[in-house]
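User: You have something folded?
Assistant:
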Amino acid sequence: MKILTMARRPLGLALAVALLGLLAACGTSDVYRKEAFSKESPYQRHFLRDETQVCDAAQRTLLSQGYRIEQVSALNVKARKDFQPDDEVNITIDMDVTCHANSSGSTAYVNAVQTTYELKKTAGGASLSVPGAGSISMPWSKTTDTLVKVAGETISDEAFYKRFFDLLSDILGK
């Protein structure tokens, strides 16, 4: 009887771990349920200028803040800026501005994505296998550094977009 009880414990533990893993996976897959699709959005602003003027001003806004223009057309600007808060972390902000005409000017839509990378070190050593003598470890080793993406998220901070649109408005006014 004791053997049967002991055999069930590892099975029960494995089942509990699997169930917890399944519940954790379910919690992250329903992010879309929190999408509000609200009329009020920090990602857009209306301007009394045509869409090409607004997108040109958006490009100048990004350039003035140290962003590198990755792609540009009359109605779209994609830019990137890198940050290194410490020796082992690199953060990138990718900005995408799209301009559309409407009946009384145009609307600029902006989206910014922050991606975080961390430096990961991988160590490797050298060894030599000699038939009949066994394995011999060599005295040197190799370390490889790689930036690994650890997070990526759309910036949703309204103050961030307000600062962008306020500077864009100033540039349009000049």
In short: Confidence is low (pLDDT under 50) at residues 1-8. The beta strands are 44-47, 68-73, 76-86, 89-102, 105-130, 134-154. The first strand starts at residue 44 and ends at 47.
